[in-house]
Amino acid sequence: MNNTQKPSKSFGDRLTEFFTNNHGKAASISSKSVAFETISPPKPELRRKAQLKYRSRVIRSSNAIAHLEYSPTSIPEKPLVEGEEWTRFVCISDTHTHEIEVPDGDVLLHSGDLTNLGTEKDFEKTMKWLCGLPHKVKIIIAGNHDLTLHTDWYEKHSPNFHLRAGKQDINKILPLLKGKGAQASNLVYLQDEVYRFKLKENGREWSVYGSPWSPEFCNWAFGYEPEDGKALVSKFPQTDILLTHGPPYALLDLTTTGELAGCKALRKRLASLKPRLHLFGHIHEAHGAYLHEWDKGATLPKVQNHEERGVEDSTSLEAELERLYVPQGLDEEQQNYTADNDDAELEEDFSSDDGLGNLDEEGNGKEKSQNAPSERPTLFVNAAAWPMGKLASRDGPKMNMFGGPGFQAVIVDLKD
């Protein structure tokens, strides 16, 4: 009789087994619980035969276009207008070591959860895939699942996730993100920093800020408490593009358990930053997009997705907005939340005289930044690729797949 005891499994080991054996089940992100719902995809041989139903869903304005859903065999073309230059950004998030179908474009943006649990093996697979994509520039950030990249946190919590796999060596992982292979493919990893680039000589310079943080969730990586949100987002500079892993509050952040999981401080800060594009993920079931025109409203509305939107052919911005809805079934605090009362105490922290390049009422600014916000609209995109929630089962429980209908890479065209 063998009395040798096997080492007990950590939470991370059990979760790894879940991802491996039940990759068609989705974890509903909630600050209160982790709930699993079965949305099992068919076996690969059956999936190939399945008639996946792709709608045509698009948001349009004069200087921004977002294709949320499209046929993989007929990718929408970038605008060709005489005298105008457009840049195509392909937006993805929450791929969790899966390789999804990604259209070509000028720039690839990935908003975190590159891996399941941040192991060297997961990063090797993910980075090989990303580096092999044809985009001229690729910009990525981490998410709460990319455990090892939050080095201080990982030093304390590695046994909870990697007991059997063993503590991972960050010195082997970082070169995958920043080494010669990444550099050769023009891939840039951002962690609370700015990156600027031009796609061609004498072309427009784009600025991008990337932050991996999201409101604390079950003590995962890159989490922060609500009271720390103001200090964190106050450091976000004005850039053309903002990448965060977590969403702003009440904007494409509704979980399957009915919670609004986004950050209130981030929501308030966005009124000062006004990026051209804000990409995030984290809340898989809230995949979608919204275009906000600041000259028509200085505060953001509540916006969530809906499983039945975009059934018709390509739509105008107005038609798409009609399908956005104020979620029902929220608790009293969430239901009574309005843009006008979103953390009024934040007002002083993000006043016009904050030294961040914002203008006061008379148009004077302190050290106005090169990328000071304009009245151009902001396109908000939740590009989570993991199918979850009602949108995932829109065409039946066996018709979903990573990056499939309703969860495709979002194609964003911005006028230079």
From TrEMBL:
Residue segments, region Disordered: 345-380
Database matches in CDD domains: MPP_239FB
Gene3D superfamilies assigned to the protein according to its UniProt record, in alphabetical order: 3.60.21.10
Residues annotated as domain Calcineurin-like phosphoesterase: 89-285
SUPFAM superfamilies in alphabetical order: Metallo-dependent phosphatases
Any one Gene Ontology molecular-function term assigned to this protein's record: hydrolase activity
Pfam families, sorted: Metallophos
Alphabetized PANTHER family for the sequence: CALCINEURIN-LIKE PHOSPHOESTERASE DOMAIN-CONTAINING PROTEIN, METALLOPHOSPHOESTERASE
The name this protein goes by in its record: Metallo-dependent phosphatase-like protein
Organism per entry: Crepidotus variabilis
